[in-house]
Amino acid sequence: MTDLAIPDEVVRMNLAANGEAGRAWLEALPRVVRELRARWELTIGPPFEGGCVGLVVPAERMDGTAVVLKVSFIDDETRHEADALALWDGDGAVRLLDSDPERGALLLERIEPGTFLGDHPDRDEAISIACRLLRRMWRPVPEPHPFPSVRELAQGWAIELPERFDRLRMPFEITLLRTVEGLCSEFASSTVEPVLANRDYHLWNILAARREPWLLIDPKPLAGEPAFDTGHFLRTIVPEGLDRTAVDQLVDRLGAELDVVPERVRAWALLRSVDDVLWGLEIYGSDVEWDLACARVLARSL
User: Fold this and answer.
1) Catalytic residue positions?
2) Structure confidence by residue, pLDDT tens digits, 18-68
3) Pick from 271, 183, 240, 217: which is nearest to 82 by CA?
4) pTM of the model
């Protein structure tokens, strides 16, 4: 991969998750970055650390404007990031300056100081900030729109989760699988009015900024019920020890601050946890103990 320093975690994730297609993407990445640098007349710095899906580098335009170049492996999660950012148009989210959909490339404003909301010294305040921002991001989606449907995602999971469970030789109790199968059927028939949803909403995808106090980055957009976003968000803020009372309190808090039904918060978090257990076993073969423990805690209160 020649003169481009691709972070190790980006290499590891793309090889593990995307196989030969990921290897081909990594091998082509230096050439793609050179072409984008020429197209947008950029001076490029060393990559940011911390991400694992795509390459993200600070850059400057010819006029000295500070920007960010992001290049991602194109899949169902990344394909419509530019569309979501265009719909938000900088309101609550990083501003999209340009894009090259065929290369999975985005040219973004540089957010400064860019500190993570996850590093806020007051975790309770950070959660409230994130909830206020998330409610702003739930915009109606115009028709027609390019975003995948949360209902269709749930329909797919209803079929795929049992198949993956059997393929992995029943890695956890069958009752847990049956519970999430039922949730998939429920979510697939949801009549809640869809909004622009985000499957990767958490405190470390929110950065301190100047034009607004906090801005969202790195959305993985879909069209679906608002509570969908809370599933992953909840899992990223539950206490490490997975105390059941603390988890229940967080479920109720997110329900209240986001004006969604708490049991939908819990159910989406459970479904996302089980999906992550199976995904982790398929990709890495291990390192799923926390996700499984989280799923079991959530399932006890359903």
Assistant:
1) 200
2) 999 999 999 999 999 999 999 999 999 999 987 788 999 999 999 999 999
3) 217
4) 0.95
